[in-house]
Specification:
single chain; 254 residues; alpha/beta; five-stranded parallel sheet; 5 strands; 53% helix; globular
């Protein structure tokens, strides 16, 4: 993973806090001060910027397992069932937390699906159910004894009530030219500095999009038996997005 200096500092602080020996000390200290013992974080930003991958990297670095919440499984067509399901998630996590020597991470991926802005309850039964789910989550976060990380591409859709509940609010932005060049150099080390700078400068890709291109290049190399030249890399770049990816100078009058 390649982070900006500011983002790397935030991730390192969170990682240090989740190292088991430090985590236990911090938890005990917060308990002494009657503070919420849990650690909660929201990773937000553009798609493909490494939010979910960072959670897995944090888990690996700190020796933790991940309880991944399937958002689609939290909603039911039957009245009252969705609330029971979301409550069961936190109950199951509490049991897993208690039984685990190294405490696990509860991961809500694409969390805006259940952490979204609350609706006018008068509008429909669906709105009432969604608001009830959010109230349960808010209550559980207030008393959480554990580690909860949520990710979202749509931070503007999150309800303001959740913002205070997240101890860490970490924004993931698309990489700079320098960061993109490092990613290209790491993924395709046979390209020279001029080629990687050309790719980094001309294409506004996230790390995930660069990874897509690298996968196609690998497939091409396996199928043809020939390592692709930079021209072939560029051809894959042009096909990566439905919308225009090449950074062109703006033309107009001032």
């Amino acid at each position: 993973m390649f982070y900006s200096k500011g983002l790397e500092k935030q991730i390192d602080f969170l990682k240090e806090s989740l190292m088991e020996d430090k985590y236990i000390k911090l938890r005990n200290r917060k308990e002494q001060l009657a503070l919420i013992k849990g650690v909660t974080a929201i990773f937000y930003g553009a798609p493909g910027t490494g939010k979910t991958e960072t959670v897995y990297q944090l888990a690996k670095a700190t020796g933790r397992s991940i309880m991944h919440v399937d958002i689609s499984q939290t909603k039911s067509m039957w009245f009252g069932e969705s609330e029971k399901k979301i409550k069961e998630i936190f109950n199951s996590y509490a049991i897993l937390y208690k039984d685990s020597e190294v405490k696990p991470i509860l991961l809500f991926n694409e969390a805006d699906a259940v952490f979204g802005k609350r609706k006018d309850c008068i509008s429909s039964n669906v709105a009432q159910t969604e608001n009830a789910i959010q109230n349960i989550i808010l209550e559980e976060m207030e008393k959480l004894d554990g580690i909860l990380i949520a990710t979202t591409n749509l931070a503007d859709n999150l309800d303001a009530a959740f913002e205070r509940r997240f101890l860490f609010k970490v924004k993931f932005e698309k990489p700079t030219i320098e960061e993109k060049q490092k990613i290209w150099q790491n993924k395709l080390p046979w390209l020279n500095d001029t080629d990687t700078l050309l790719l980094a400068t001309n294409y506004q890709f996230s790390g995930g999009e660069i990874d897509n291109i690298v996968r196609k290049i690998t497939m091409d190399e396996v199928l043809t038996g020939v390592r692709p030249a930079v021209e072939q890399v560029i051809s894959f770049c042009k096909l990566e997005k439905i919308h225009e990816t090449l950074v062109l100078p703006k033309i107009g009058f001032r």
